[in-house]
Design brief:
- The structure holds two protein chains of two kinds.
- Chain A is of the alpha/beta class.
- Chain A has two domains: 35-160 and 295-372, Response regulator (Rossmann fold), CATH 3.40.50.2300; 163-289 and 376-409, Rossmann fold, CATH 3.40.50.2300.
- Chain A is built from 13 helices and 15 strands.
- Chain A is globular, with a radius of gyration of 23 Å.
- By secondary structure, chain B is mainly α.
- Chain B has a two-stranded antiparallel ribbon.
- Chain B is globular, with a radius of gyration of 19 Å.
- Classes of the chains: A alpha/beta, B mainly alpha.
- At the A-B interface, helix 1, helix 2, strand 8, helix 8 and helix 9 of A face helix 1, helix 4, helix 7, helix 9 and helix 10 of B.
């Protein structure tokens, strides 16, 4: 450093550094673009999923799953004898998701669109799909309102909605005596999915004899939960119920274990990957899920084995859902020998059955386009009873039971506000 | 009773602020000596967390926390030698661009090496749980964390204010030309400060791994808060950063006590207010070369 430092720096000034620094720190927080694409004139399929932010890790799994489906479909001869080509991008946030969806329909000329985990982003893509009168399969978004008041003719929903998660989880909680007479503290992610989940959870718990002693919202970018843990301790609940999204659950569970609060904990949402990340020593409680890698069907076994071989780790529920979603669409297009979106919608509304790698096949319910399928709950195994790092979760039998109708846990037509 | 709850949040906020301090102080130090806002600082925090997990596989938790900053500090030497050093005398915007780019490269590299999914990280069983002091609940682990921060902070302060090394650094911050005229090469001092700065970030990463997420974007996440702390405190000011870190922790905790949903927003509102009324930051010193 010498005289020239002073001169150059002096001309730039502290203000400029601050301004530029703030802009770039902001850009860092927004996440980096992760664009994956190729070109040719095969059947193009558009795929959007968050690769950054609090759902980014799940989105990365989703991409691994859908890429595997793409390879397998193409190896088996493609769709209607043509190869498919996936155009997959980071959806980033609801606004960007909508912009990218519009571009994919219009400029990339994709045959159809699928993807998403973030319910708020799925909502904006659904609006784009309806405006363009084009097909969209929402794969991983779970908010109830998407298939209720916000439903539209052009969108189908693959993942279990919030109501099903709450009902499945509620059954598990009741089995453990964690509902009736419990004083519950709710902690909820402050965005569309969290609000939806909290609404369904509170109504289930209230109907089944639990009371509320605390109910707090937290922003999706909260990483330190200690102030909330103090509030929980003040409220002295007998059950802490979380309605958190994405990797927030992992953070919360780790810090809950750190503080060692004595109250029982459960939650209405936890993805397998986030449970693995929490680690066996930290996680406790009962949680719902839509699929897990120990399901005893030939389909799941083959999928898990192929995934393990390729990626050295088992698939979690978003890898699975993206995998089966593309397979379902390929099968449907092969059945009608067309990728015409209106024909596809008409076909799916006839409720054809699809193999979801679970004991029972699933179908899209014609009036709300919601996939009807089994769900599961899981708890945590005792230390020493498992070998692999990702084997510490103990999964329940399918819910509903084999002798019950698949639609048992779903909202009825009377409860739904869906009008197409 | 309500007052007591509030006080508990204040104390908890101070603890959290101590942790922010570990990251922000290094950022501020590197800026004061080199004039570069190191946006890659978060990357060293993330690398510290990942390195500690790797070391813990072989040596356990304690040695991992101690050795991870050393390993990342060594990386800091290369970082200073091959990147930062070229930008001390350049337009500050160039330093920003380069460190911004490095942050992206580091995040993608972590994604390629360790995968996108968060990695599990645990603390020893003995450190789990909380202690009740008076009427206040403390996480045992965070008490340890704050003790470590206090030791590091004292060490850095002593180094800067009570040693001949510190005298040269402080002189170099104010008048690099005079230091050069006295025949002292500032280069090794710069390297040392950068190494200390990134090692502190790595220590933060290693310490926070068991209670937060270890995933590729963790660096981008922390740099935002660290930057806010430094701006509030005043770029380049030691005590400004200390004050700002604690203030940010407390404001966040108190906001969550009253309006939980606004907890994260409160930090940025605080920065906005400080910049509005005191653009230099709370204790921002007048550094001639940046005016």
């Amino acid at each position: 450093m010498g005289e020239e430092t002073k001169d150059v720096a002096a001309s730039a000034g502290r203000r400029k550094v601050l301004k530029a620094g703030a802009t770039m720190a902001g850009a860092l927080a927004l996440g980096f673009p992760a664009i994956v694409r190729s070109q040719s004139d095969k059947i193009k399929i558009g795929h959007l999923t968050p690769l950054t932010g609090f759902l980014g890790a799940l989105g990365q799994y989703a991409v691994l799953g859908i890429r595997m489906a793409e390879e397998e479909i193409n190896a088996a001869g493609g769709v209607m004898g043509r190869q498919i080509e996936l155009v997959s991008e980071d959806s980033v946030n609801p606004t960007t998701a909508a912009t990218k969806a519009q571009r994919m329909y219009e400029q990339d000329r994709v045959a159809l669109l699928l993807g998403e985990i973030n319910s708020a982003s799925a909502k904006t893509i659904m609006q784009v799909a309806a405006r363009n009168k084009r097909f969209f399969l929402s794969t991983g978004a779970r908010s109830d309102v998407l298939r209720s008041a916000d439903c539209n003719r052009y969108t189908f929903h693959m993942d279990i909605p919030v109501t099903v998660m709450v009902n499945a989880e509620g059954q598990g909680l009741e089995r453990e005596g964690l509902v009736k007479g419990r004083q519950v503290f709710y902690l909820t992610s402050d965005y569309l999915f969290g609000h939806d989940l909290a609404k369904a959870a509170k109504s289930f718990m209230a109907e089944h004899g639990a009371t509320t002693v605390g109910d707090e919202l937290c922003a999706t970018d909260v990483t330190d939960f200690s102030p909330y843990l103090l509030k929980i301790r003040q409220a002295k609940p007998t059950l802490v119920a979380t309605n958190l999204g994405g990797n927030q659950v992992t953070n919360f569970v780790k810090q809950y274990a750190e503080f060692g609060l004595p109250y029982a904990i459960a939650g209405f949402n936890l993805n397998t990957a986030d449970a693995w990340a929490a680690g066996p020593g930290n996680l406790s409680g009962i949680w719902p899920t839509v699929w897990h890698h120990h399901i005893d069907t030939p389909g799941t076994k083959a999928f898990v084995a192929a995934f393990m071989k390729k990626h050295g780790k088992p698939p979690e529920n978003h890898a699975w859902i993206e995998y089966v979603s593309l397979k379902v669409l390929a099968q449907a297009m092969n059945e009608i020998k067309s990728s015409d979106n209106d024909k596809l919608i008409a076909h799916l509304e006839k409720q054809p059955q699809f193999d979801l790698l679970k004991p029972r096949k699933g179908y899209f319910r014609s009036w709300d386009h919601q996939m009807q399928q089994e769900a599961y709950t899981f708890t945590v195994k005792k230390p020493g009873t498992y070998k692999e790092a990702w084997d510490f979760l103990a999964f329940s039998a399918p819910i509903p039971r084999a002798d019950q109708p698949l639609e048992l846990l779903s909202p009825t037509k009377a409860q739904s506000e869906c009008k197409m | 009773m309500q007052l007591l709850f509030l006080l508990e949040q204040v104390v908890n906020g101070l603890v959290l602020g101590g942790y922010y301090l570990l990251i922000a102080l290094g950022l501020s130090l590197i800026f004061s000596v080199g004039g570069v806002v190191n946006l890659a600082h978060g990357a060293f925090y993330a690398l510290g967390a990942y390195a500690s997990l790797e070391i813990a596989k072989f040596l356990g938790f304690g040695p991992a926390v101690a050795l991870s900053p050393v390993a990342v500090g060594l990386l800091g030497i290369l970082f200073e030698r091959f990147f930062l050093r070229r930008f001390y005398t350049a337009d500050p915007i160039l330093g920003l661009l380069v460190t911004f780019g490095l942050a992206m490269i580091a995040e993608q590299a972590i994604r390629m090496i360790w995968g996108a999914a968060p990695l599990p990280a645990s603390m020893p069983q003995a450190l789990k749980g909380s202690v009740i002091l008076g009427d206040f609940l403390f996480s045992r682990y965070r008490l340890l964390l704050i003790a470590i921060v206090a030791v590091v902070l004292t060490g850095i302060w002593l180094l800067l204010n009570k040693t001949s090394f510190g005298r040269v650094v402080r002189a170099g911050i104010q008048r690099p030309d005079m230091v050069a005229a006295l025949g002292i090469r500032l280069q090794p001092y710069m390297t040392t400060i950068v190494v200390l700065g990134v090692a502190m970030a790595a220590l933060g990463g290693a310490l926070f791994a068991p209670i937060a997420l270890v995933y590729p974007a963790m660096g981008a996440e922390i740099i935002t808060v660290a930057f806010v702390v430094v701006v509030i405190g005043g770029l380049g000011s030691f005590w400004g950063v200390v004050l700002a870190a604690l203030l940010v922790g407390v404001v966040r905790g108190v906001t969550i006590n009253f309006v939980p949903a606004a907890g994260e927003a409160s930090i940025y509102i605080l920065m906005f207010l400080v910049l509005l009324f005191r653009p230099r930051g709370l204790l921002g010193e007048r550094i001639e070369k940046f005016e």
